[in-house]
Write a structure and sequence with these properties.
Length: 494
């Protein structure tokens, strides 16, 4: 009994030390129990050794992995630990060492491929996924390879990989969605929109609404169309641009959107009513998910979408914000530049959380922008305190209408791929998008301009995780930037 109590106390303290980054303490506390068949103590001890930088722990991690084949691989536990400490790249040598100890385990090259897609180099990620396919050529392995190839712009090879994946798992909607996203990223929009409908088969998606779904533009005169928000705020901000076109076809347009978008979307031309979450919409004749509108309108690179601006701040609210924004001190050349450096974490959604890790940065990376002569940075980051030296009006922001009122008084916006970029570009503001290497399909591949927003420039990472180069590109563009002539705000409906 004494030994059991002592073990529990030691392992509890070792685990606490492990998560606190006190690896020497974790090793010493677990060392006495780590031998023999005590897998729990052995795992803590090996993780402490590995997190401290010693790849010799790979042998112990491999032994534990073989002893509990149904559990996560211990190297996954190590990666999770290092990621919480903000240093996921430190797991790469441990993964390679574990692969040498367990060359038959297909989980390891799959983990390595996913990690290298995050920290680079992407060419090595492709090679790791090719290794995973050779060990276990199932649908998930082929699809992961396809995603890595698409990130590199190797779209013909990516399509071949996705076809292999779907031949093995034809009913898997996630594999089908990965292929659709690659089609869109490559610019094959007509095929991509048609394939993109598979997203509705994912288990976490909203159920279809009653009534017919909008599929075309004929016979809309006098009919009511309900547009439903699907995923992120940015999706709705991007695709609400089609509301005026629906109204031009004679439709009465109702938007069913989350609360933070209600007041802003009310001002979109063509929207006659908005419905808050939790409320039932009024009677409608047909409905359409926001992300299906480009397919309805046949949007392609040869038939581009309606251009911005289509979003606008309330003039009175913009005037209130203007009173709180000081001059840059250089009325002819000074610039007020809004910045957003992170997306919503969405920790309960593993896929969204993984995307957010690679699309977000820390605000200190934006320092070169604040060092430009005459530039005053204004935070547009919701829910966090801005760093010293950055003007921050966001504590008073309630929703996107309030954020739009701030943006209306700015000269430009620099943002990662989040809703702020869509809001500012939808208002017609110059936007310098800081884009991750494996970028979202909507920005296409290898482009610095966007068919969605004529005032947006893309500054993409030259390699995964290289935010410094993307920021340097935006800083260079800002250094030669001149204010655009003021655009009149989009007229409110009515």
């Amino acid at each position: 009994m004494i030994a059991t109590s002592s073990r529990l106390a030691d392992l509890r303290r070792a685990l606490q030390a492990l998560h606190a980054g006190e690896f020497a303490t974790a090793m010493s506390r677990s060392a006495g129990w780590a031998g023999g068949m005590d897998l729990e103590a052995g795992l803590i001890h090996a993780l402490a050794i590995a997190a401290g930088g010693d790849t010799c722990a790979a042998l112990a991690l491999a032994r534990i992995a073989r002893s509990r084949p149904q559990a996560n691989h211990p190297v996954q536990d190590l990666l999770d630990l290092l990621r919480r400490q903000g240093r996921p790249a430190a797991a790469v040598p441990h993964l390679r060492a574990a692969m040498a100890e367990m060359p038959e385990d297909a989980r390891l090259p799959a983990l390595l491929g996913a990690l290298l897609a995050e920290v680079g180099p992407m060419a090595d990620s492709v090679a790791a996924f090719q290794h995973a396919v050779a060990l276990r050529p199932d649908g998930a392995a082929w699809s992961n390879l396809g995603k890595a190839l698409a990130a590199e712009g190797r779209f013909a090879e990516a399509e071949d990989a996705f076809n292999h994946a779907l031949s093995l798992a034809p009913d898997d909607p996630q594999l089908a969605l990965n292929r659709a996203v690659a089609l869109l990223k490559s610019g094959r929009l007509a095929e991509g929109w048609a394939a993109f409908g598979c997203r509705h088969r994912l288990p976490d998606r909203s159920r279809p609404l009653p009534g017919p779904k909008l599929t075309g533009l004929d016979g809309l005169q006098g009919r009511t169309v309900l547009l439903r928000h699907e995923e992120g705020f940015g999706d709705t901000l991007q695709f609400i641009r089609y509301a005026p076109l629906l109204a031009a076809h004679g439709a009465r347009v109702i938007a069913w959107v989350p609360a933070p978008l209600l007041r802003l979307i009310t001002r979109v031309p063509g929207v006659t009513a908005v419905v808050p979450p939790g409320a039932l919409p009024p009677p409608y004749d047909t409905w359409c998910p926001m992300l299906s509108l480009p397919q309805v309108f046949g949007t392609t690179l040869d038939h581009p979408p309606p251009a911005a601006p289509y979003l606008a701040a309330d003039p009175a609210e913009a005037a209130q914000q203007a009173a709180m924004l000081p001059s840059t001190g250089l009325p002819n050349t000074g610039l007020r530049v809004g910045v957003a450096w992170a997306g919503a974490a969405r920790a309960t959604d593993p896929a969204a959380a993984a995307t957010d890790r690679v699309r977000s940065m820390t605000p200190d990376v934006l320092a070169p922008l604040g060092q430009l002569p005459g530039v005053r940075l204004v935070s547009l980051q919701f829910g966090v305190r801005a760093p010293a030296g950055m003007l921050d009006l966001m504590p008073g922001v309630r929703d996107f209408a309030d954020t739009a009122a701030i943006i209306a008084n700015l000269d430009a916006v620099v943002s990662v791929d989040t809703a702020v970029a869509h809001l500012a570009a939808g208002m017609g503001k110059p936007v310098f998008l800081l884009d991750r290497y494996d970028n979202c399909w909507r920005w296409l591949h290898g482009r610095t301009s966007s068919p969605w927003y004529p005032t947006l420039q893309v500054h993409r990472q030259p390699s995964p995780g290289d935010w410094a180069s993307a920021v340097a590109g935006a800083a260079a563009a800002l250094s030669g930037f001149r204010r655009l002539p003021a655009r009149p705000p989009a007229a409110a409906p009515g």
